[in-house]
């Protein structure tokens, strides 16, 4: 009885407790905690099982981390993928149509393998022509867009240079007009001085006339000269008034010209800023076009691989000409693979936003696990 109790205790320590530990670790794993380990110290069957479970949990932990990182990358690549898929949606529809025709003809291929081979040959040829045409058209459009954006950017740079030149010319012209305005002011001061001299000369001539009148016959000749001097002084004063009025008019027009130049200068500055903004937009367009070109290159590689796959399908169908049943089975596999490819393309084309949401949901679900 004692021996039996001892064996029971030993059995509990050797078997039950390790199994209980295994159960606890698996329970934690079920609850999302993937960080637990059994760490069984022996190498018996339980130890081997424990090591296998630890290794499995470690692998699942690594996979979970990797899936989380991948889901994050999926979310960041979705926007880029959307533009690339939109460029290839038309070609994908044509490809899907041709593949669907292959799938629909799979049953008929069981009885008429030779006819199916001929039809498949024609399909591959048409698909290659269609893909080549579509990809070439898209690639040409992207290339033209890149060239146009480059030319537009150069035109913007030239316009910006011209705006800067206009700004410098207007600034120089503004300085010239301001200098003219200053010179006009100086001339006005000189004309005021000439007017004062004329008035003083007129006053002196008037005094000389009075003195000549007092002198009688002896002052008559002086009176004639004094009258002529007075007339010249009056004419000089009138001319000075006219010139002064003209100078004031020139100053007013010069002031208006300076204000107009300032407004034009401000408009040139605003135009230069607008040209600069347009240049930045063109640069952004060019970067987007270059990015599309990169995605187009990836699409071309995928299309080439798809063409290779289609040729492999063709060779496979030709190689199974001796067995109608096997040919039908392989045709069904081809149809299923093609439908799956079409479904994937349609899902990618129609629900890029849904893919982003799925990535977010995946990250949310992965947060359940403790890694």
TrEMBL record:
<keyword id="KW-0472">Membrane</keyword>
<keyword id="KW-0807">Transducer</keyword>
<protein>
    <submittedName>
        <fullName>Methyl-accepting chemotaxis protein</fullName>
    </submittedName>
</protein>
<keyword id="KW-1003">Cell membrane</keyword>
<dbReference type="InterPro" id="IPR004089">
    <property type="entry name" value="MCPsignal_dom"/>
</dbReference>
<feature type="domain" description="Methyl-accepting transducer">
    <location>
        <begin position="84"/>
        <end position="321"/>
    </location>
</feature>
<dbReference type="Pfam" id="PF00672">
    <property type="entry name" value="HAMP"/>
</dbReference>
<comment type="similarity">
    <text>Belongs to the methyl-accepting chemotaxis (MCP) protein family.</text>
</comment>
<keyword id="KW-0175">Coiled coil</keyword>
<dbReference type="InterPro" id="IPR003660">
    <property type="entry name" value="HAMP_dom"/>
</dbReference>
<dbReference type="Pfam" id="PF00015">
    <property type="entry name" value="MCPsignal"/>
</dbReference>
<feature type="coiled-coil region">
    <location>
        <begin position="156"/>
        <end position="183"/>
    </location>
</feature>
<dbReference type="GO" id="GO:0007165">
    <property type="term" value="P:signal transduction"/>
</dbReference>
<feature type="domain" description="HAMP">
    <location>
        <begin position="13"/>
        <end position="65"/>
    </location>
</feature>
<dbReference type="GO" id="GO:0005886">
    <property type="term" value="C:plasma membrane"/>
</dbReference>
């Amino acid at each position: 009885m004692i021996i039996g109790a001892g064996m029971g205790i030993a059995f509990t320590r050797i078997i039950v407790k390790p199994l209980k530990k295994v159960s606890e670790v698996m329970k934690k794993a079920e609850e999302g905690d993937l960080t637990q380990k059994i760490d069984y110290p022996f190498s018996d069957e339980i130890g081997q099982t424990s090591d296998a479970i630890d290794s499995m949990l470690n692998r699942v932990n690594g996979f979970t981390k990797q899936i989380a990182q991948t889901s994050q990358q999926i979310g960041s690549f979705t926007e880029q993928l959307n533009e690339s898929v939109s460029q290839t949606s038309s070609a994908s529809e044509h490809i899907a149509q041709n593949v669907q025709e292959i799938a629909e003809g799979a049953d008929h291929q069981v009885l008429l393998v030779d006819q199916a081979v001929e039809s498949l040959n024609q399909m591959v040829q048409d698909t290659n022509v269609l893909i080549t045409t579509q990809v070439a058209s898209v690639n040409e459009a992207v290339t033209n867009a890149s060239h146009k954006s480059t030319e537009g950017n150069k035109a913007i740079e030239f316009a910006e240079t011209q705006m800067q030149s206009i700004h410098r010319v207007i600034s120089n012209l503004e300085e010239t007009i301001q200098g003219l305005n200053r010179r006009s002011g100086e001339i006005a001061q000189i004309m005021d001085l000439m007017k004062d001299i004329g008035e003083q000369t007129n006053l002196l001539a008037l005094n000389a006339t009075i003195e000549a009148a007092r002198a009688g016959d002896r002052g008559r000749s002086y009176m004639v000269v004094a009258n002529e001097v007075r007339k010249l002084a009056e004419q000089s004063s009138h001319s000075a008034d006219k010139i002064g009025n003209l100078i004031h008019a020139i100053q007013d027009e010069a002031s208006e010209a300076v204000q107009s130049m300032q407004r034009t200068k401000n408009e040139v500055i605003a135009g230069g800023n607008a040209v600069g903004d347009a240049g930045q937009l063109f640069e952004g367009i060019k970067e987007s076009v270059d990015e599309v070109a990169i995605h187009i290159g990836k699409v071309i590689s995928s299309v080439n691989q798809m063409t290779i796959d289609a040729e492999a399908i063709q060779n496979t169908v030709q190689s199974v000409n001796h067995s109608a049943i096997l040919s039908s089975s392989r045709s069904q596999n081809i149809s299923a693979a093609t439908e799956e490819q079409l479904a994937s393309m349609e899902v990618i084309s129609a629900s890029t936003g849904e893919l982003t949401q799925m990535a977010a949901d995946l990250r949310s679900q992965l947060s359940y696990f403790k890694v």
